[in-house]
Design goal:
- There is one protein chain.
- The protein has helices spanning 55-69, 122-136, 171-183, 203-206, 214-225, 242-245, 269-282, 307-313, 315-332, 342-345, 371-381, 401-418, 441-452, 454-457, 462-469, 478-485, 501-504, 512-518, 523-539, 550-574, 584-608, 614-629, and strands at 32-40, 47-51, 77-79, 89-95, 106-110, 115-119, 143-150, 157-162, 188-192, 230-232, 290-292, 336-340, 359-363, 385-388, 422-427.
- The protein has 630 residues and is α/β, with parallel strands linked by helices.
- The strands form two sheets. It has an eight-stranded parallel sheet. A seven-stranded mixed sheet has the order 1-7-5-6-4-2-3, with helices on one face.
- The longest helix is centred in the last third of the chain and has 25 residues, at 550-574.
- The radius of gyration is 26 Å and the shape is globular.
């Protein structure tokens, strides 16, 4: 067996042979934790005393805490009358910023006699309840005595999910994800949007996308607010507009109106008029005062209708002028503009001209991304910024674990060092969203922990934390399987940026440049990756996940492993050569195998995602079928 991650320990024993309560392992681990002697048990007549304001929020938090304590077999009655010395008051929930000074901070103390939570604010009280939920998750009727003092390193900790690269999640899928993010103390959530909001007069743009309706966004906004999460509106407004520009009358607004174009012409008044209309319709559905307008990867700028102006004034100046027009629109709606910083970073002399009420989003998804160099430019200019790492799930099928963890850790470290105002974990769906949502859970959980407290979570046992608080696997297998399946890419030869070499076997088939890269994967690379995958995939059926979607999770990671194995089979069948070297038998076998994978992809897709976008995703795989059939 080829080694994948030697620090994760051996495969756990069979279910039931080890208790899950042999250590206090939380996600995230708190800033300070002290274990005390004894255990706490609720009495039959226990009361939960509420103290503080605002009253309605405190009552809601009391019910949240009461639901958590129901795990112990009893549920204390709520009261606001009494004193904490009353023997019936076994649980205290107080909001008192004079005692806990850090925003979102809390103190949780459990003794054999009483459980006490004192929080700075409602968010702190909620996070204390989430910590308590994790403590109680694997307990029977009592809790260990301990003392926790906790607060976040960073005030803004977000997750952004790509819902524009074919896969649009079902509402239940999103609500379950929001529940998990809230438990991990995430307080912002974005849905990356290009064309997947049902704008009233633009049905041709979103017709095949199963978009979010206005009512669904209103419901999600409320659902997030109840869990102390801002649902931040997101609408790309410059690049990545190909889903709009392929349709009349928007084609005339393209930088390159002939053929497929993704970038708006910033000089055409119609471009800013279009985004102004979109903002007018979109923004009233969100209570957050932030707004991510995108504006990244404007690859075509200066290559078409704006060429003369870019040559005269410089592409950076043309870009900034359009960005400032968008800024004025966002100001008109009383929002703070967030934008991706990749283009302005190419023109560092212009960073100082950015308004000081914007938030630049410094994104980078590799372990060696130059965060220090780029953050320093914003610091010198006095421009607020977030650092935005990624889950490394996209273009990989099963993730790239070691890259993701290193990227997330570097982002958290630099966020603290350079005074970033936030940390946004991104998850993308490039080239058909061929990874399933649970592939991203490792990155979400790891990033949430590091954003909350880098020092307390820098040595977090991530596979064990995933077992306990993500996959709920009593057998202690799933966390290790997911962690190591995400490192199989390291066995497949050259490490590529932003995707894995195995994914490269499917990536833009027939493209000569990409062919030259994919053919560097040799048969022995595929053989050693398959050996590792076989061991991991066999372990999937030895898990004991206590989740209602346990079988679906097994099917999804089985499919991820099968996608990886098929890429390896293709490399092996080429025998070190090219696609032209496949013999007839190999072509038949590869065609049959990928056909089965496509059928299973169709089946699995609709459990967590809407049907819109499925055919576009499948088309990426069918293009690979044509390679085998030629």
């Amino acid at each position: 067996m080829h080694s994948l991650s030697p620090d994760t320990g051996p495969m756990a024993p069979s279910p039931g042979s080890e208790p899950m309560t042999d250590e206090i392992l939380l996600l995230p681990m708190p800033q300070r934790l002290q274990v005390l002697p004894g255990r706490f048990r609720l009495r039959d007549d226990a009361l939960l005393l509420l103290k503080g304001e605002p009253r309605a929020e405190l009552l809601r938090l009391g019910h949240t805490l009461r639901g958590t304590l129901r795990t112990l077999g009893k549920s204390p009655a709520l009261t606001t009358f009494g004193v904490s010395t009353d023997p019936r008051v076994q649980v205290l929930l107080a909001i008192d910023p004079a005692q806990v000074r850090q925003p979102e901070g809390y103190r949780l103390e459990i003794t054999p006699a009483q459980l006490s939570i004192i929080a700075h604010d409602g968010a702190g009280a909620f996070y204390a309840a989430m910590t308590l939920r994790q403590l109680a998750r694997w307990e029977a009727d009592s809790l260990p005595a301990l003392r926790i003092e906790d607060w976040p390193d960073l005030p803004n900790r977000g997750v952004m999910l790509d819902v524009s690269r074919d896969m649009v999640p079902r509402m239940g899928t999103l609500m379950n994800l929001i529940d998990s993010l809230a438990e991990w103390k995430i307080n912002q959530f974005q849905l990356y949007t290009e064309h997947t909001f049902a704008y009233r007069d633009d049905g041709a743009v979103w017709a095949d996308a199963s978009p979010f309706t206005p009512q669904q966004i209103l419901d999600l906004d409320q659902y997030c607010r109840e869990r102390f999460i801002q649902l931040v509106p997101n609408q790309n407004s410059f690049g990545h507009m190909e889903r709009w520009l392929r349709h009349a009358p928007y084609r005339a607004l393209a930088e390159l109106p002939e053929g497929e174009s993704a970038t708006l012409n910033p000089l055409d008044p119609g471009s800013i008029q279009l985004v102004a209309r979109l903002y007018q319709e979109l923004l009233p559905h969100f209570t957050s005062r932030l707004f991510n307008v995108g504006c990244d990867e404007t690859f075509e700028l200066g290559k078409g209708r704006s060429r003369a102006e870019c040559e005269r004034r410089g592409p950076g100046r043309v870009y900034l002028d359009y960005l400032l027009k968008i800024h004025r629109l966002v100001q008109h709606h009383g929002r703070t503009m967030m934008f991706w910083g990749d283009i302005i970073q190419q023109h560092p002399d212009l960073i100082a001209e950015l308004p000081r009420d914007v938030i630049a989003l410094e994104w980078g998804y590799e372990h060696d991304h130059p965060f220090p160099e780029r953050c320093e430019k914003y610091v010198r200019a006095g421009v607020p910024f977030y650092i935005c790492p990624g889950t490394s799930s996209w273009c990989s099928f099963a993730g790239r674990t070691d890259n993701a963890v290193a990227n997330l850790r570097a982002a958290a470290d630099n966020a603290r060092q350079f005074g970033a105002s936030g940390y946004l974990i991104t998850d993308w769906g490039d080239y058909g969203h061929l990874q399933y949502l649970p592939t991203a859970w490792l990155g979400f959980a790891c990033g949430a922990a590091l954003a909350w407290s880098l020092e307390a979570n820098d040595d977090l046992n991530l596979p064990r934390a995933l077992d306990r608080h993500v996959f709920l696997d009593r057998a202690r297998r799933m966390g290790r399987i997911v962690h190591q399946m995400g490192n199989v890419y390291t066995l497949a030869g050259e490490r590529l940026r932003n995707r894995s070499m195995i994914f490269q076997q499917y990536f833009r088939p027939g493209d000569p440049v990409q062919d030259e890269i994919r053919y560097r994967m040799r048969p022995h690379h595929g053989e050693q990756a398959i050996e590792a995958l076989d061991e991991l995939m066999n372990g999937l059926h030895q898990t004991a996940m206590q989740r209602p979607d346990a079988q679906l999770l097994i099917d999804e990671f089985t499919q991820a492993g099968a996608f990886l194995k098929h890429g390896c089979h293709y490399a092996i069948a080429r025998g070190g050569g090219t696609a032209a070297d496949l013999d007839a038998a190999a072509r038949r076998e590869l065609t049959a195998e990928l056909t089965r994978l496509i059928a299973e992809h169709r089946r699995l897709w609709t459990f967590r995602a809407r049907s819109g976008g499925l055919e576009a995703s499948v088309a990426r795989l069918e293009a690979q079928l044509q390679v085998y059939r030629q």
